[in-house]
Amino acid sequence: MNKNNFIRIIFLCLVAFFSFQVNAENTSDSPWVAESGLKNTMPIYAQVYKDNAIFEPKGVMLGVFKESKCYGFTSLINGPTGNLFQLTMMCNNDKEDGFSYKVYDPNTKTFYTVTESISFTNGVAVGKIFAPIQLHISGIASAIQSTEINPCSFSVYPNPVQDYIHIQFRNSGLIDTKTVIELFNITGKKIETIFSQSLPSGGTVSVKRKKEWKKGLYILKSEINKQKFAIKIWLN
Question: Does the domain made of 3-128 have the CATH classification 2.60.40?
Fold first, then answer.
């Protein structure tokens, strides 16, 4: 390869790289707040797949986590070979294991987990601009997570739901308070009120699934002491 061709290739790569940088979507609406003040970085270039197809709805975000803490997130970027994520992962150690990815789709207010896990190595790029790594959503049934308004007070287990919906209110101050819990389909149509009485000791409500509640995505809503809660559940 002569010198001129080599310089031309370097120039094209730089142009692609900087084009890739400036086309990032705004991440101000992210549901995550990344840890700050961390000294080491690792760049990640990735595409996310769901049901064997690239998952790239408008505004979708990719984040990296460990023990519920966010170590970096980004939205889709229009790169030189299509839409992909450029994620700068942060860490204080030169090497560290135990990180995982999550995907957030703002259009459906849904969080997904990713099958692959990663290890951090300072300064070592994962994937390339032209050949990003492939990440795979682990499946909607196992991937739906809480989208509650107050995540510290309202949870459902198991989720996906089989025979019973177990709803736990972790704020002990809500016990002995009149509580109404309603079930809605994904379009927002109310199915029925599934609970309307005082919370039992421990703040856990168990509701047997009815046969007419068909498999699919639903929303549970509740209001207690002027606190509003909403969470998505998947009925298997």
Answer: yes
